[in-house]
Amino acid sequence: MTFLVLATRANLHNEALAAADAVGADGAPPVGRLNAPALDDAKLWVTRLWDTAAGAIEAAWEDGRAAAAPLIERFGQEILELRETFAEGAKAVIDLVAERLAEYARTLTRRLMSQFEENLTIGVHRFEVRGITVQQKLKMTGTLKASLHELCSFVSEGEITVSAKYAV
Amino acid sequence: MEREEFRDGLLLSLRHALQELTAFDQSAIALAKQVLSAPTIGDSTDALFRLTPAGWVVLVDYCAANWTGNGRHALDLFGGSSFSYLHPKPEGVLVLVHASFALLAALAAEEAGEANPARLSASGIELAGQVEAAGLPAIAHRLLSCLFHLLPAVSAARLPVAEKCLQCGEAAGQTDLVAAGAAACALCRIDLAGETQAERLAAFEALELAIERISAASEAAREQLAVALVSLSRKPENLYLQNLLVHLVPHIKNAGGLTLLAGKQPWPARVTEFSDDEDETAAMEAHVWALRHDLEVDRDHLGLLPVPALRNPTADWLDWTLSHPAYLRAVPNGRSFLEEKDAQRHLLDFAHEVTHVKSLLGYLGLAMAALRAVLLHRRINDWARGGRGPEEILALRRAGFEAPPIDPTNEADLLCAEITLELVLKARALQDVWTAWMEGLAVFGEAAAEVPDPDATQSVGAALRCLVDFRVERKPGQELTQEELQAQVEAFFDDVGGRWASAAEARVPGRLRELMATPHTPYLAGYLAVRGVVAAWRARLGRPLGGPAAFRALVSATRLSIADSIPSLALRSDRFAAAAEAGLSAWVKRLAGLPADRLDLLLTDPAEDERRPPLGWRDGCSVQLSSEEQAALAGNVLRRMVSEAFLSLADPADVGRWGAAGDPDHEKAARWAKGLAELRQREDSKTEEAEAAQMASSWLTLAMLLPLGRADARFYLAVGPEDSKSRLSLIIRKATRAVGMELPSSDFLMLPLSRQTATALAEEVRARGTPRMEVLRLVDLGHYVAPPLPWPLVVLRYGDWLHVLLGDRSTNATLVDGADRDHPLANAIRGRLWPEDPIGLDAMPRGDALASHTLAQLGAAPPGDSFTMVWRSALCTLAERIGDESARRTAQCRAASLMLEALGHTPAHAAEYAAQRFEALTKRAFRLNIATSLFRTGCLPGQDPWLDQRAAEVAASGFDIFERGAHGWDVRAASQGTTA
Q: How far apart are alpha carbons B757 and B746 in whole angstroms?
């Protein structure tokens, strides 16, 4: 037997964003000294791009894909600017932002799947989960902008269809 | 092994050795006779024999067979209580013989196939130590040389032998022996070096030293030792030493492939002498040639140094220095600072950290210095209690005792330990309470971009301009008028200010965005507090006050107007922390509410009113105050602070942990407190307070000399005749990573020195032998050097030789000559950068170690009576508080929140800002725009189309702190209640 489950809730989305935020994040500066964080170009660029990318995901989540479109466009322009003004570090920056996008997708999916009960009991029958399938396809390849576009489409549906197969 | 068996085995091995070595040189026996016939061992120092291990066997055998002292035979050494190694008799020979037997035993074990290099090494070093102590370091050296070759080639046991060998060579004062010892150390280190960077660094530095020592040895020794070391270059794993080994090529006839690397130029010694002009030219050419090669050596060495643990720029609360990762091993030189890839970032980093240092050089710094000086005096007294002398103290410190041992049953010990912890806790409480404001001010300062004032040494901008050399532009033969020179100076200062402004515009919005979300440090709360105060000033003045003017006034206020906001240093630490929080809150509120006339006084640019006396503060208000009056005021405050700090735990109200008044334990504790208070009334206590105040004042004065970068520099020295200039040539590393490269970049500096100065340096080089000197760049933040210098100082240091140059105006004018060892500025720089504290009594910076010591001492102590058990428990709680980083972050957050509440923020908002929850409060896509809005309004409020366009977006972002007033957009003023 198969159940269709309507999934994502806001807390899962926020947890996934928090997990993505943590990728490549610095630890706390040492206590007891007057510090200035090490704010090199790469760090500033990662934050700038990620603010836009995560902002687009937020917009897609809350207001739909159309709301994310301007931010996706801005994201693309910022990547161009990055390549022009910080060519030597652009790859590392892009890799880290891509990793954050992937971590968002991974965490969201993982958390969704963990919502299912491992087994169900209906009457005297006990069903165990035999498989879970996410209905949407998420293509996280190609350019970073395209990946962001995919991800925004993925989350903008408002509900992600995940099916779980249970059997006795 | 039983003693008898040991003796028998030893004798057997001795006889065996003698049978094997009957043909051995008779000189050993002759020496032995000479040693034994001499009235004292020291008389035999001229007996220079090259002994082999077998020779020593013979010598020891002779001693053992023939020497009798006080009616005892040498073999009675092993007979019982008549001899104890730990308490040797005064007879030096007896000790010598005993140590010899230990070595023989080790040798015997080797011969018996029981290889134990470590034991052999230890025995040999012990014997050598005795021989050296008997006044025969050269003989000890030879013994160790023999032993070195006896030990397996790649053996950790060889290294201590080699090191002792070097030590004996130095004690003997013979250059060949020193060279041999240094070469032995290098050989060992190189043999032992694996793939780890630390091992390779040790090998590299040992080889460097060996090369220096070999170059001073006799020709024969040079060749022999150089050949031994150069042969190492043939091993592929030693490729990292190749550039260094080239230095040995001149000493040997056939150096193989290294000869090609060395080239055909004559290689200069570290120190050379020239006698006429022609020689001078040759010396200079040789220096340039050698320095070019040494660039490679410098890069090799730098590559082996461990990556600094410091990842971000910091300033230190206690010694008021700053550290920047890019300038831990590099010194800005010429215009190099501006030419680096990260120049803009570094400029803002320095603006941030210099702001910290300058802000601390006021009453907050005085309070820290008072606590630190009192702790130092208390520790001197604590260590001396019980009649401990310097040697015992030193032995305990070397054994790892951070503080004197605590007798857990001794109430005086417990009291002393608690006062120590209290002083540390109070210093930390002040730091935690003021962290948010200090960080907020420094973040605001990054964007202040003030143009340095050529006549002022007080501004942050004046310190930043010292990162760059000013070069006078003139055509050949042109004489500049004073006006022309002044115009160049002003143009230079404008250029620095302009670069700061460009850096701020390009980077501060992004940095603000990052800082507002950096976890655990209350940048956001501090910044909003500063902005709230500035906005209140702007509203009260009725004019758009610019960021630079506001910043300068805020730094002045932070330094000089907070004396009354620092609670009595006599308070117990928990009550002190609460009072400090209240003090900060009251102070920011008062600062935000300064009346318009006081603000006018505060904000008037000194350059616009030259007749105005320097600004000062009295009773929290800006006043016209001469610098003498300000100094007198500060002196009074410092004396009060020191006196208060000495009264820590002298208030009977502080002993409440033993129950209420009337409880016997409470009364007992109260008697301790009263006793302490009475002690402080004594005349000698007053003297002690005066000394501590003097010390604190001296620290703060020296802190005006702020190092901006430091590096080691390879150098060559050519000493010329009396009537010409000697030359010092060195490599100044100006960046550890040059633009577009992963390699360091360096400049050559060729400095003329007087013969006297060069000779003083040459003597130091001969004594120390290291191939690098230290180079530092300093800025005089105050008026330490008179007349005030708005120029950087460049300090060259090699051992006790300290030479100070004026780092500007293309003149390299000398401020302190290296030959003048007692120059006041040299002493000040030494006191600032290399303070003498051989026993490590200045413990405030090591508060964590003090806490660990207390916990270790009390944790293992057996239970005592109820009174001391309560006390011990309280001490452990205090010590744990010192080491609790989480508690410190909580304290910082709480103080920041209270400060914002005092400025009109709601408790909920204040708590959010203090917890750095900028990201939780804002939508992601708008964060950079919020930061940009803060930057733009921070520089100057006004009509701003950029802000107009984004006002709705920013307002909707969830971070509603802006408003549009009569002068345009700004952060809401503190006095109006910043947030609804």
A: 25
